[in-house]
Every structure is written in C-alpha cells, then in structure tokens.
Amino acid sequence: MRSSRPFRRGRCRWLPAAVVWIATLVGAPPLAGQSLNVLLTNDDGVEAPGIVALRRELLDAGHRVTVVAPLENQSGVGSAVTTSGTIDYESRGDGIWMVDGTPSDAVALALVHIMRSDPPDLVISGANFGQNVGASVMSSGTVGAALAAARAGVPAIALSVAIDPRQAESPTPYAGTRDALVPASEFVVEVVRQLAETGGEGLLPPRVILNVNYPAVGSDAPDGVRFASVSSLRGFRQVFSVSGQGGPARVEMALANADQAEAGSDLALLGAGFVTISVLDGDLDAGQASWEPLLERLIIER
C-alpha cells in the first residue's frame, strides 16, 4: 500500500534533480518567484475534469491562466489542424475560451489572436484522461498541442493521467484516474516552479517539450519519478472486429502490456507505478548525421 502524498505545494521531496538539470541548460533565473502567464489546453474538451483540476491548481499557485481548449473530445487527432473553412470560438468568461477545432487549432488561435497582446510564458496541455506513452505520442492530441506550442517557440508540457483497465467496471469507473487528477496537477505545478527558479531566457530549451505521465494511484503517492525513454510500443493499440470482405470494421482501443516494454521506457516505468517524464524533440529533425549515409544511395544533386 502506498502512503499518502509526501509533498505539498512548493515542496516536493521526490521530484528528481534531473528536472532542475534540464532547466539549467538555459542559464540564469529571471522567472523565479514570478507569476507565469499560462495557456492551458487539452484534447478532452474544455469542460473535462482534468483541465478543470489543473486550472485550479495553477491559479492557486499564483499563475495567470487562460484556457483555450476544444469544445468537444478530440482524442487521437495528434497534430491535426483545420486547413479550410472557419473555426468557431467563443469566450465563456473567466479567461476560458472554447474552440470548435483540434487541440493544435486551439493553440494556434490562442497564440495568434486570443493572447496576441499578452503572449504566454508556458503552454500546458492536459491533464489528459489516459496515458500518452510510447509510440502513441504520435497520435495524441494532448502531445500534439504541446508540440504545436513548442514549434511556435513557446515552452510546453503535456500531462496525462493513466487509466487502469482493472478499474473500468468499478462502481466509479477509473476512480484511480479521477482521484489522481489533483495530485498529478500539483506535481506539474511543482515542476513549473522548479523550472522557473532554475531557468534562464526560457523555461525549457528551444523546441523541447516535457511529456509527463502520472499513474492511476488515486490520492496515494506514486512509487517515485523517473525520466524515461519513449517506448517503441504503442501505449494504446487498435483492435479490429471485421465481418465480411467489405463491411465495417469495429474499432476498440486496448492498452499495451507494460511487461513487454523496453526496460527504462515510459510504458514500462508507468506500468510499475512511477511518474514518468519524457523529453520530446519538437524539431522532428534527425539531423545531418542521419541523412549523410543516404547520399551514397540516393540520386541527389550536391
């Protein structure tokens, strides 16, 4: 049995020193002790419990928060954007805006219009209801929104809280996830505080995002925090039921088996009860070292 949460806001004994190490890459700390201007988004929808919990924790910590999030659930859309037509959006008051589009649409609209005169210091996407680990980060709307922010030059964090399939049929489905939304939000607020105290010209290195996944432990404490590589397995996989040669294929989502994941990966460590932090590269560019060997195999003008 895990003990109750071992930290309160502003003091986290089990936050790894590696978080501070990342922040020191960018120099001296002009943001320390300041209220940050935070753009908060998600892919579960503007009224989802995860974004409500995270907004409350950020406000309680003294940050300014503007919510710009999809009107409805947009899970699985990745970095998709609307390419034609119109996007409806409206203010709901108290700094909350709904966007009838994708998570990346919401981030773009916030940066170029809603928050243009008061741009954010940080974008946080979440807290998502369900983990975003392994190769599933490529299709995650939660991670897609954070990547959209990072590629626009704004530091970004994605936060997801895992679901445990064993809790699906309980009186309150996924109670461990629901009860973990607040401690997961507190954890990210603490990460932001430490990054602000140790950061320099920006909270994170350029084009880098942090992908945080919190286990479904309810109000109990996780087993610890680990920096993790991204598993090559998908955190969620599609399961198809097909009838006939040309009929519809019924699609359901199933969780990957964490026991099959690579040691030290986000999928394996989250399955073992740890909070995982993965560092994702928003550049999506493997660099010159990766393409030089191809010059001998492809006909390319030099």
Order of helices and strands: HEHEEEHEHEHEEEEHEH
CATH class: Alpha Beta
**What is the number of beta strands?**
11
Strand content: 15-25%
CATH architecture: 3-Layer(aba) Sandwich
What is the distance, rounded to the nearest whole angstrom, between the alpha carbons of the first and last residues? Answer: 63 Å
Percent helix:
25-40%
Low-confidence stretches: 1-30
* Class from helix and strand fractions: alpha/beta
Mean pLDDT, all residues: 84
Question: And the CATH topology?
Answer: Stationary-phase Survival Protein Sure Homolog, Chain: A
Biggest beta sheet summary: 9 strands, mixed
Radius of gyration: 20 Å
Number of helices: 7
Give the CATH superfamily. Answer: Survival protein SurE-like phosphatase/nucleotidase
Spatial order of strands in the largest sheet: 3-4-2-1-5-6-7-11-8
What is the approximate shape?
globular
- Number of domain modules: 1
In short:
This protein has 302 residues and is an alpha/beta fold.
Protein described:
By secondary structure, the chain is an alpha/beta fold. The chain has one domain (17-296): 3-Layer(aba) Sandwich (Stationary-phase Survival Protein Sure Homolog, Chain: A), CATH 3.40.1210. The protein contains seven helices and eleven strands. The protein has helices at residues 17-23, 49-60, 103-114, 141-151, 175-198, 266-271, 288-291, and strands at 37-41, 64-70, 89-91, 96-99, 122-129, 156-161, 208-214, 225-227, 236-242, 249-255, 275-281. The strands form two sheets. A nine-stranded mixed beta sheet has the order 3-4-2-1-5-6-7-11-8, with helices on both faces. Helix 1 (17-23) packs across helix 5, helix 2 (49-60) packs parallel to helix 5 and helix 3 runs parallel beside helix 4 (141-151). The longest helix has 24 residues, at 175-198. Mean pLDDT is 84; it is low at 1-30.
